[in-house]
Each structure stands twice: as C-alpha cells, then as structure tokens.
Amino acid sequence: MKRFLLLLAVVAAPLYAAAPAGFDDDEIALWAAPVEGGGEFEAHRADAAVNPASTMKLLTSWAALNRLGPNFRWQSEFKTTAALVDGVLQGDLYWLGRGDPRLDSARLTEMLRQLRLRGVRDITGRLLLDQSAWQGIGTAEGFGGDAERVFTVAPHTHQLNLKVAWLRYRFDDGRPQVALDPPLPGISVDNRLQLGDGASCGDVRRFVTVAQQGARLIVSGRLPPACDGAANYVNLLDSNEFAQQAFAALWQQLGGSGPRGLALASTPPGARSLLRWDSADTLASVLVDMNKYSNNTMARSVLLTVGAQYPASGNTLADGERSLRGLLAERGLPQQPLTLENGAGLSRRERVSARLLGEVLRDALRGAYGPELAASLPLAGEDGTLKKRLGEVGGSLRLKTGSLDNVRALAGYWQAPSGQRLVLVAIVNSARAERLTPQLDAAVAAVVARYQARLAAAAAGGL
Known about the structure:
Strand 4 (84-85) and strand 5 form a beta hairpin. 29% of the residues lie in helices and 25% in strands. A five-stranded antiparallel beta sheet has the order 2-1-21-20-19, with helices on both faces. The chain has a five-stranded mixed beta sheet with strand order 15-8-6-3-16, with helices on one face. A three-stranded mixed beta sheet has the order 4-5-7, with no helix packed on it. By secondary structure, the chain is of the alpha+beta class. The protein is globular, with a radius of gyration of 25 Å. The chain folds into two domains: 2-71 and 283-461, DD-peptidase/beta-lactamase superfamily (Beta-lactamase); 73-281, CATH 3.50.80.20. The protein has ten helices and 21 strands. It has helices spanning 2-11, 57-68, 105-117, 239-253, 283-292, 296-309, 316-330, 354-366, 370-375, 437-461; strands at residues 28-34, 42-44, 75-80, 84-85, 88-89, 93-96, 122-123, 127-130, 164-172, 175-181, 188-195, 208-213, 216-223, 231-235, 262-264, 272-278, 338-339, 351-352, 396-404, 407-415, 421-429. This is D-alanyl-D-alanine carboxypeptidase/D-alanyl-D-alanine-endopeptidase. It comes from Vogesella facilis.
C-alpha cells in the first residue's frame, strides 16, 4: 500500500508553488503539460504577461502553418506595358515582389535567365519596384544602437539575400583577393589585404577589417592562405537600392543591358505578365531557417505574408495579427495576455504568457502540421541555437530559444523514447537574465527529469 501511495504521489506531481532553484519568485514564468492527454504537469507564474523574445516566433509559425499550409510558396512576377521588339523592351519593367524571405542571388539569377529566354535582352526603361503587396510592415523600436546589425534588417517585399552582401576571399598567385557577391555597381571594393600566417582560418573576421566610406568598402588585414574560400557578410544600402543594383549586376552578367534607373510604382491594371515565378522554398522550409537560427527578418515576413493572404483592413501587419487572433478563437485558446509588435520577438513591447504560448504549442503538436513545426525547432546539443546547450537531456528535446536584454527563454517540447511528449515553456524576465542562462537550462532539464520519473512510475505501477 505504501509503495502504491508513493507512486501515486510521483504521478500526480504538484504544480510549482515556488520558483525553480536559482530564481527569485518574479524572475521566471514556467508552464509544462503533456501533449497526449489533458491538464498540466508543472506551472509557475504561468499567466503572467512576459516578454518572450524570439520564442514569439512559435506563435507566428503556428499561425502561418494553419493559415497558409506548409507547402505555401511566395510568387514574384515581372510585368510591363511596353512593347517588346527584337529583344528590346521599349519601356519600364515592373517587378512585383511579395516578400519571399529566401530570395537570394542564385534564385534571382535564375528568374532573370528565364526572362532572357523569353526574349528580353535590353530594358530601355526603368526597373519599377511594385511594393503594393504589403501596406504597413510594423516596427521593431528600441534597437537604435543595433540599427546596422543584420538581425534588425526590416522585412521588404523585394528582400534579396536578407539585404546583405558577401565578401568572398580567394588567393591569386599567393596574393589575397576579395570580391563582393552579388556585385553591386554602386559599391567599389578597395582591397588592402596582405598575406598572413596561420594554419587554420575559422571565422575570417578575425583577420580582416571592413570599413565603409560612402560607396567604397575598404578591406584590410592579414589573410592566411587557409582562408581561401572563406566569406563574411556586410550590410549595405537600403533595400530598394540593394534590389536594383543586384538586379542590374546579375542582368548584365547574363548578357542583358539596362535597366535605366529605379523607381517605386504600382503596376497598371493593363500590364501584361512577362514572367511569373514561384519561390524555390516552401513555408515549411523557411520555418526551419527561421526557428533554428532565430531569423527576425524571416519571421516578420512570414506574419506579413499571412496578413497579405487574409486582407481586411488595408494594414498588412494588422491583418496578420487579426488572422492570428482569429485562429486562437477558433481553437478555443485565450487571446490574452498577448501583445504583438512584429511577431518575431525582436521587440521591447511584445508580451505573452507561458500558458498561452504552451497551449499554442500543444495545439500545434496535436494538429496536422505538428511534424513541420517540430522539425523547425533546434535539437538540443545538435543544431541551431541549441547546438551547445542541453545535449545531456535524454530523449528528443526541441526548443526555440529567445534572447534579448533582460530576457532569456526556451519553448518547445521533449519526447520520451516511448513516444509521450511534454510541452515546455520557460521565460526569464530579469535584469540578470543573461547570468541566469545556466539556471534556465537546469530548470528545463529538471522538469524533463521529473516527467521521466512520472512516466516510469506510471509504467511500473501499471497506471
């Protein structure tokens, strides 16, 4: 009888009455619940409104999978009202962008190659960017000091290479060389590199210094031969200029000439289509990059795409949020506490509760697109932002990380070898959040260990 009562006590593990070890009571919010079955397993301040940092991307992913489907593709299109005579487009070319978050130089090159195959050789008019797909992209305020960092790049209907160019290094007769990829006609590269020593390269930024002076990039340093083939990125130009210059450079590489200038304009109703192109990547593929490596620009683009596909108010971000909140209502999930600024977690304003985020995760894993969401999450100790964390936890632990000043977060699920799954959300809001990262990992590992004990007790007791 005593053995049975002990097993029953373990199986019916009490909810948290106090914060996990190492935390003050108001520093952490935690919620854990089984996917198979109802109820909760453990909770602490689960209904408090907290800043989730990048774990907010899970809410955006869930909404996008349900509203767009995992096989959704972004479409780009080139149109014109001008005549095409003997390979010469006698007027402007309209480029309708719809926010493909994975559009890069290789994919744009293939689009332009197809345009060449359709008979266009020379564009005598301008390249006109049609940005009408999005009206209102939202904000990410409070990051002014990081304005030049890649993680703050705003979404754009014509986002190319996430608005970064690559400096690619090679050696020619023993001399270090550097080239900009894609080549941008308005940017010159001043190569001041010298031959350096070293048997290995690693991060090439250890050896080079890049300075921008107007339209000139000055690249200096001592580059060892081991860095042949290495690359690092630079954030250049605004999105409109970047798209136009990359288009022109790639077009010329394909033997085309023009266009003559850039402008922003909506495509006239009577324009005819020269090329319609679906993105190479599906939504499910984009979510893998977005969540494993916590890409803010992609996340913001995904929520805007939901809004563009479900227009209602004329403000694309507001329509994305409206669609997300509508999905919460449809699934019988609470809409509060929830404050959205951009859906990426790159925000000082966004708020959610550990319970709401956890219930969304549980709904996702029980639904048709649970495998797609799960596959997008970093695997502890293996890849993405969890490559060097929590690898010692047994079973399959997949968690989205979140990191901002005063915020550290983990949210996802653990799967036992026997198949049972546990949703986990742990969010730290504290001035000492960064220092508490080891305690956060320990708290999550401890919840998993207690749930393992519950499963073992249930199996042993035949419950």
